[in-house]
Amino acid sequence: MFDALNYEFMRNALYAGILISIACGIIGSLVVVNRMVFISGGIAHASYGGIGLAFFLGIPPLLGAGLFSVVIALIIGILTFDNRNRSDTVIGVVWAAGMAFGIILIDLTPGYHVDIMSYLFGSILAVPTGDLWLLLILDIVIICAITLFYREFVAVSYDLEFAYLRGVPVKIFYLVLLVLASLTIIMTIRLVGLILVIALLTIPTHLTEKKSGSLGIMMFFSTLLSIFFIISGLWLSFTYNLTTGASIIIIASTTFFLYSILIKVKSFFF
Description:
globular, ABC transporter involved in vitamin B12 uptake, BtuC, 80% helix
């Protein structure tokens, strides 16, 4: 693995992995605690419409997907806030419509765009330096938001009635969380692809949730675990010439299943 770091693209991949792990560790914890995994999945797949729109208009795909996913996140948030237990229909419709919109726009765009495959399956080894700066800015924004409003996010995540009584603008924080989640998802898609993004956002948090005494500790250990998965995936893909995004997720998924089985066996016998 150390030999691989002699290559600039591997160093960029490592830096990108660490930076996105910070975003996934923090936002993933809030997504899991607020039971927004399906909503995040809807945003991720609907963002394909933004990618298609970007190709159609000739603008950077990351910009198109980012703006589109933020709009989708706000629409989902407004439509589902008052009835989150019955939001699956709205999310499913947005999910399908976004992907269909993207596919049609790509069909209407002249030429064949090979770059579209990188957004489906990830291209962490092709992350440019410019994206590293975007990831750093995203991390700074997320860390500042959580640091400044940590108590409000905790109240909104664990006890809505208490948050209302404390005068917390719950709807605003809910929408802010969705926007931050959508931006994190778009940047994560660049690493592991649209198909695998939710796994990286949720698996580290699920593994640390029950062992964490607070939301902050959960965020910290989720970040460390995400870094471990990404570094291990990079090593596996480099050593055996495998697809990097899939290697990262296969390690994370294997860890998840082994941990779940271990817990079940332990509770069964002890």
